[in-house]
Automatic annotation (TrEMBL):
InterPro entries, alphabetized: dCache_1 (IPR033479), HATPase_C_sf (IPR036890), HATPase_dom (IPR003594), His_kinase_dom (IPR005467), HisK_dim/P_dom (IPR003661), HisK_dim/P_sf (IPR036097), Sensor-like_sf (IPR029151), Sig_transdc_His_kin-like_C (IPR004358)
GO MF: ATP binding; phosphorelay sensor kinase activity
Database matches in SUPFAM superfamilies: ATPase domain of HSP90 chaperone/DNA topoisomerase II/histidine kinase, Homodimeric domain of signal transducing histidine kinase, Sensory domain-like
Gene3D superfamilies noted in UniProt: 1.10.287.130, Histidine kinase-like ATPase, C-terminal domain, PAS domain
Protein name: C4-dicarboxylate transport sensor protein DctB
EC number: 2.7.13.3
Organism of this sequence: Desulfuromusa kysingii
Compartments in which it is found: Cell inner membrane
Catalysed conversion reaction: ATP + protein L-histidine = ADP + protein N-phospho-L-histidine
Topology in membrane: Multi-pass membrane protein
Length: 589
């Protein structure tokens, strides 16, 4: 499941990264394209400024000629009287050679060429009528005319500049300078650039590309065609539409066009004074190549990054799996170690168990031995005494001293009672004591009884007794005899512990608590050894010599007290002696 989630998240990370990378690459490509295009537009604009300058310069260089000729007196005479033709021809020829223009010529008021710089050429203009040319009609009506056309006689294209010749307001004719723009066009061509000039009708009359020459940028209307034909402007040229497909208009005079499957930046700038448009056409391929290069670099970089990140991920995965394998090995080794340890522990445990069992067995046997020795010792004395008393009873009977025989019997009875009390104690362990019916017991009565039974011991060993007992009777629910027995056991133990002490004080404090009564018995005896503490209430545990104790007192007391829903605890005191505390539930009167 976790792996599935990891795979899904990896898939999305990849998708998002790819999307981001694609967006970035696309943006970079776009930016590169726009930047290169802007550069191309800027460079194209600069080139157009240059070409416009050269064009204007080429034309203005000869603009003065028609005017100068119109002021020539010989020409005026020629126009008025048809004299001077040779003189004017020579003049025109020499001036034309000097100025560098294509042809200079003079037309009469009806458009006949009277003199020309090419008077010696077979294709001389002399004798031809060019009255149909707009530059002539313009000169006639507007003083001067400008016109680009293919020469009607020579077939050579040129720019015609005319000026009217007047005398006292009478139109005599016109002087014309024809300028050859082919060198300009050749210069553009040599520059390797596509520079075009179109006229007001959109006809490309100057073009550094030969195949585009005399093609039109827009479809010519019938009217336009008629007018062009009338002026014989472009001779027999078909003036076909140049199939430029506009792909995108970037701004005024800036567009992207498709020609012959290739894209070009097509810049146009109007030449206001001439009524023409100058065009600069640059192939868009470098722009596309640059953006494509950026795109390819972007894609390669993206793929490289992707490959690197995948490789990095693979390496990380391998490292993780290696680490995991190491960890697994370590865990396996640890498991093996643990198993070995567990097996060892189990073995030790079973050995311990065995040993324990043996010890328990040994302990039981020891306890049994101890108990047997105790019982033997306890019972031996009365048995010996009974035997002695019985023997002396026989003698007394023989002597007829019946009074003394009675005493002997009484002694025997006491001894058997003593024996019975010993065996009665043992009986507590032989069977479970049947629960006696609980009765109301006044604690003070039990304590008095116990103290009475042990009173002789106090005097024998010089023990002083201090009691703190409430005056009001403290009532318990239980068995008076058994509670008394517990108190006797504790007092006896305390006396035994103090036998050899310097200070022999026994304190008994009874406190009536809200729910319980607390009985504290403190002695100034030898105290309890720390390592015996855990065994204190174990049956047959005794530190006393054989015959002095059976090790049953505290265990019997424990049993009695817990039977009565109470508790008993013993501890050694820091300044010597021991303290036993009993708690028993009280009955509220
Ligand atoms: P016994 O008196 O026959 O030895 P108990 O069960 O009454 O048997 O006591 C067990 C052991 O507890 C004693 O042998 C003794 O070592 C220890 N003991 C009991 N009471 C005291 C006490 N007040 N001071 C010191 N040791 C005590």
């Amino acid at each position: 499941m976790k792996k599935l989630f990891r795979n899904i998240s990896l898939f999305w990370v990849l998708i998002i990264s790819l999307l981001l990378a694609t967006t970035l690459v696309w943006q970079a490509t776009r930016w590169a394209y726009t930047d290169a295009l802007n550069t191309l537009i800027k460079v194209g604009g600069e080139r157009m400024t240059l070409y416009s300058g050269t064009l204007h310069e080429a034309l203005s260089r000869y603009a003065y000629l028609p005017y100068v000729l119109s002021q020539n007196i010989d020409i005026k005479i020629l126009l008025k009287s048809s004299f001077n033709a040779d003189l004017v021809n020579d003049y025109l020829q020499s001036l034309n050679a000097e100025a560098g223009s294509d042809t200079l010529y003079v037309m009469s008021a009806v458009g006949d060429t009277l003199a020309a710089s090419n008077w010696q050429d077979p294709q001389t203009y002399i004798g031809h009528n060019y009255g149909f040319r707009p530059y002539f009609t313009d000169a006639k009506s507007k003083l001067k005319g400008r016109f680009f056309a293919i020469g009607a006689t020579t077939g050579k294209p040129g720019y015609f500049m005319s000026h009217s010749v007047c005398d006292n307001g009478q139109f005599l004719g016109a002087t014309i300078a024809k300028v050859d723009l082919t060198p300009l066009q050749d210069d553009w061509h040599k520059g390797g650039e596509t520079v075009l000039v179109s006229d007001a009708n959109g006809v490309l009359f100057l073009s550094s590309r030969e195949d585009w020459k005399y093609r039109t940028l827009t479809q010519l209307s019938e009217n336009q065609r008629t007018m062009i034909l009338a002026g014989r402007q472009y001779g027999a040229q078909a003036l076909e539409l140049l199939p430029l497909e506009t792909v995108e208009v970037l701004a005024e005079g800036q567009k992207i066009v498709r020609f012959d499957k290739a894209l070009y930046l097509f810049l146009s700038r109007p030449q206001e004074d001439l009524g023409w448009q100058l065009h600069h056409v640059a192939p868009l391929a470098p722009v596309q190549e640059r953006s494509q290069a950026v795109m390819i670099i972007g894609i390669v970089l993206t793929l490289l990054l992707l490959a690197l990140s995948l490789y990095g991920r693979e390496r990380r995965q391998k490292q993780i799996s290696r680490r995991k394998a190491h960890q697994a090995e370590a865990i396996q080794a640890m498991n093996l170690r643990l198993q070995a340890e567990i097996a060892e522990r189990n073995r030790t445990e079973s050995v311990l168990h065995e040993t324990q069992k043996e010890l328990v067995q040994a302990g039981k046997l020891a306890a049994l031995g101890h108990m047997a020795a105790g019982i033997v010792h306890e019972l031996n004395q009365p048995i010996t005494a009974i035997r002695t008393q019985a023997a002396s009873g026989h003698l007394l009977l023989d002597r007829g001293e019946t009074g003394k025989v009675r005493e002997t019997f009484s002694a025997i009875t006491r001894m058997t009672e003593h024996m019975a009390s010993i065996t009665a104690q043992l009986k507590t362990f032989a069977h479970k004591i049947p629960p006696k019916r609980k009765e109301r017991v006044v604690l003070q009565d039990c304590l008095d009884g116990a103290l009475n039974m042990t009173a002789s011991m106090f005097s024998d060993f010089g023990i002083s007794l201090q009691t703190e007992v409430p005056a009001a009777p403290v009532v318990l629910s239980g068995d008076q005899v058994r509670i008394k027995q517990v108190l006797v056991n504790l007092i006896r133990n305390a006396v035994d512990a103090m036998k050899n002490s310097e200070k022999k004080v026994l304190q008994i404090k009874v406190t009536a608590l809200p729910q319980d009564v607390e009985i504290v018995i403190i002695d100034s005896g030898i105290g309890i050894d720390e390592h015996n503490m855990g065994e204190l209430f174990t049956p047959f545990f005794t530190t006393k010599d054989v015959g002095e104790g059976l090790g049953l007192g505290l265990s019997i007391s424990y049993r009695i007290i817990t039977d009565l829903d109470g508790s008993i605890k013993g501890k050694s005191l820091d300044d010597g002696g021991a303290c036993f505390t009993i708690k028993l539930p009280r009955i509220q009167k």
